[in-house]
Q: What sequence folds into this?
């Protein structure tokens, strides 16, 4: 199913998340034939994913004082560093302020400065149980796989349709208030024009980040003041 979605042009990040989900569920049901999977097997899997024995691990990087010293010694501005490292200006700013960034981005920043990542960042290992939302994503993936199998008559029915995944509380959407938008725009005044334009578009249009990032000049009509949103990254 993953290969089918990849051929249909699904985003790379989505395909990667599917493969991560597959890697986590295979140990529990790999020994079973698709036709032998029952709702109780899936319910047991969901419970295991929520237990303390099943953890979602990741690594983050927090800058050391040497990062600021190294940037100052290099003579590069943060904007120049973001271009050299091929990361966003926001990522560089967060790193300089001591906020956690991904190890991958920290490594790119260190490489642009000609340093080893361990010299500029402290790497931390983060562990936490799977949330209900994450378990539900696993359920949806399994449901899609078994749905395809049912269509191809490989299984008598979709066991995931009769399973009991955890529920996720829907939170009401949050919106920026006028005073918050004013503060954001004020903070942007000293930022590079690129980031000012992107942020203004996000605020005015309500588009997703990927939609703004995928915007091309031929989709911009300055005379009529229109944008055509037809792609997403």
A:
């Amino acid at each position: 199913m993953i290969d089918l979605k990849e051929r249909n042009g699904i985003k790379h990040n989505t395909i990667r998340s599917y493969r991560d989900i597959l890697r986590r569920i295979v140990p529990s049901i790999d020994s079973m034939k698709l036709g032998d999977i029952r709702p109780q097997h899936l319910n047991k899997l969901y419970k295991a994913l929520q237990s303390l024995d099943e953890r979602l691990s990741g690594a983050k990087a927090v800058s050391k004082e040497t990062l600021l010293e190294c940037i100052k010694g290099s003579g590069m501005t943060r904007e120049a560093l973001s271009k050299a490292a091929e990361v966003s200006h926001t990522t560089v700013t967060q790193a300089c302020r001591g906020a956690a960034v991904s190890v991958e981005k920290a490594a790119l920043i260190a490489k642009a400065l000609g340093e080893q990542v361990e010299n500029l960042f402290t790497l931390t290992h983060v562990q936490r149980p799977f949330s209900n939302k994450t378990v539900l994503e696993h359920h949806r993936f399994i449901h899609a796989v078994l749905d395809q199998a049912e269509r191809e008559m490989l299984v008598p029915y979709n066991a995931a349709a009769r399973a009991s995944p955890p529920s996720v509380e829907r939170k009401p959407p949050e919106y920026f208030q006028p005073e918050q938008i004013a503060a954001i725009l004020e903070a942007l005044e000293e930022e590079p024009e690129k980031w000012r334009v992107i942020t203004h578009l996000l605020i005015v249009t309500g588009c997703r980040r990927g939609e703004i990032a995928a915007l091309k000049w031929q989709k911009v009509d300055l005379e009529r003041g229109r944008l055509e949103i037809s792609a997403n990254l």
